[in-house]
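Researcher: Last one for today. Full complex below.
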Amino acid sequence: MRRITRIATVGLASAALALSATACGGKNSSDASSSSSSSASGDAKAATAAIAYDIGGRGDQSFNDAAYAGLQKAETDLKIKGAEAEPTDGEGEADKVQRLTELARKGNNPVIGVGFAYAPAIKKVAPKFPETTFGIIDDTSVTGPNIANLVFNEEQGSYLAGVAAAKVSKTGTVGFIGGVEVPLIKKFEAGFTQGVKDTNPNAKVLSAYLTQPPNFDGFAKPDLGKAAAQGQLSAGGADVVYAAAGLAGSGAIEAAHAAGKWAIGVDSDQYNQAGLSKYKDKILTSVTKDVSDSVYNLIKSVKDGKPENGEIRYGLDKDGVGLSDSNPEYKKMADVIAAVEKAKADIISKKITVKTAP
Amino acid sequence: MKKFDKDRLLLAFAGPALALVTAFVLTMIVLAATGVDPIDPLRIMVENAGYEDVQVLIVNQAGTYYLAALAVAIGFRMNLFNIGVDGQYRLAAMVSAVVGTAVTLPGPLHILLIVLVAMMVGAFWSGIAGVLKAKRGVSEVVSTIMLNAIATSLIAYLILPKNLGVQPEGSNDLNTGEIAQSGWFPAVDLGDGLEIYGFTFVAFALGIVYWFVLNRTRFGFDLRATGASESAAQASGVDAKKMIITSMLISGAVAGLAGMPVLLGESHTYSLSFPVGIGFTGITIALLGRNSPVGIFFAALLMAFIDKASASLDTAGYAKEIGTIMKGLIVIAVVVSYELVGRYGIRRQQQKVGEELAAGGAIKTDKEVAA
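Model: Here's the assembly. Have a good evening.
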């Protein structure tokens, strides 16, 4: 036993030494212009913009993809280079701080955190890089001279979805599926429910959340969305489901398609999404949240030398949120469209105030 | 006897080494099979680990993992599988954050209070599983998994603004409010905003306590004895039921500490984005480290390295999930290689004992002849 302890002590000590030795010659991951950033160092002078994704990452057919679309548009239109970084599951604040620091140090400007989870990290990193503009989507709690808060009136878009759902529904029962029960998604639910009730006071809204935080599977796992939608469609008697659940929402769309009922998409115009083309004829409409435009605008403002800062709110009035009409079936429903347009005008003229919490 | 120890030591290292080599080779095969360069991602990961900021992340993460793995290992030593570490540390962090925010005490006392509350909550949560096991024979595997789910729901309920949580103005996050500065654990400042959480050192120090209690106290002996054979321990006067409850309580108390490095050193609040899943990684680490405090230390460093060094692979054009694949393969390789090495060890031991007996027997007969 004693021998083992001695060997262990030696091992420990040498490991600690090795670690501290490398740390002394310490370089930060972002100082190096080797391998990982070799692609960028080719034309280091070109302006670059970076986005750091939320849970789910690129390929979620929703929130993160919308941000990516904005970056892509900026790449082609503004001739800038884009950088992206994805989170790891279950990571903490320190990882986000490190990610943003690395992106900022590499000279990306702006650096955009997609999602409210980046707020504490931006609060720490932004003051260290006064020349860099930081964008954060869905949060106004952190502010600073170089922070742009990109926020949306999700409840307004969802209200319109509620109007459309109530008009289209024959059973008088509609379903709402929220990805994770967080305040942000509650805004979607509040707006949707209010829209349904204002249109048809007798209508019933079935409401379900897929997971509770800190389990964010509800934004990532389509099977959860599918199961919840199946429940609302068959047992609950709903004939329209609105899923505000990121990637999990595609499962709800699939279930609605299988049942021959309507689905309402979220964030992007999901009718036009390649990954969902099999089910698109049953995607009535989508509540768009123009994350892509907000990302593009921020990048453009930085490039033009007039970086946005402070709260930049995207509501119905600026088409920051809205209801898509790509589905030809939807375009034929004149009465639905009329009701939606009227509601939209009322919200813009502030005749209707949409609640942000259910 | 000396030679025997050397063999055992060799075997103890052979298991993890075999597992790691297999896992890395398998990872490379997976990469090559999917048409990705099998060497470059690994090279980038090693390169990443050379950077100071990544090293700090690795060390801090390793401290957190170390605590979770110790909690699991205490259970393992007693032949109890505490899968509930994940729920225990989250609930503990949440409740202790609430308590820590509500009070203001002079520095050390404030920290001590938060830590004690965390340990008590963790112990309480695992204690439920312990009592169920001791009194009703409910498998702790089942009950702790269920308690994880219950903890998730309970936290989600408690953190609502109408209960204990707060929604900061303009934020879409929920948290428990910020703990006053007196409740922040001092960190080792490396400059440039890089800090090693002070609690990381507490974590590693706890490894020594773990070793001492298990190997140098009556309680540790009872625990290991009960783990090896419950009935034999009972026959020699150990109250097995009491041991089950006690070891579950201790396991939970240590699990409760797993959230402390982050809570006391970084976030100072429990929010929706508090790290999750540490308890499950802790199981992997305890397995890999063979429940030994030193083994767990290296295993925790390894897992933290894979986590942090792979995080930026995607900026280099590779999927960072390579790290996840690697971790999964390590778990499989660990189970297989420990089994193989274990069997080999037993066979060798049997052979040796056989040889020694034969040799000893020969000598004895010689003596008898002489007599």
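Residues 58-286 of chain B form one domain. The longest strand of chain B covers residues 188-189.
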